[in-house]
Amino acid sequence: MGPLIILFSSILIGFLLRRRRIPLLPASTVSIVIWVLLFLLGVSVGSNRNIISNLSVYGLQAVVIGSLATLGSVIAALLLYKITSRRHKDER
User: Fold this and answer.
1) Cα R_g (the chain), whole angstroms
2) Is 14 part of a structural domain of the chain?
3) Which of 89 and 1 is assigned the larger pLDDT?
4) CA 43 and chain centroid, separation
5) Residue 32 shares a structural domain with residue 63
6) Which range marks the domain in which residue 58 is found?
7) Is 86 part of any domain?
8) How many CB atoms sit inside 10 A of residue 58's CB?
9) Quick check: 46 and 52 in contact, CB under 8 A?
10) Would you give the distance in Å from CA 86 to the centre of its chain?
11) Do 59 and 52 touch, CB atoms closer than 8 A?
């Protein structure tokens, strides 16, 4: 529940501050933060005995879910492309 509260709070803050000019972080800073978060996630997963002992099960599930999600995204993109290209042709 905590992560959802943080997510929706940050969305609300972003919505309230949308008209203010907020300086953007350099891309290198964002990349460093992402690498640190990935490292910490790896440490967390690596220290969890339950995940490590069931890695083959979780790995297979991850491959199946990831593959199906990618396939669904490709199908949705193709359908959207066909719908929008028809509308674009009709406007000509």
Assistant:
1) 21
2) no
3) 1
4) 20
5) no
6) 54-92
7) yes
8) 14
9) yes
10) 30
11) no
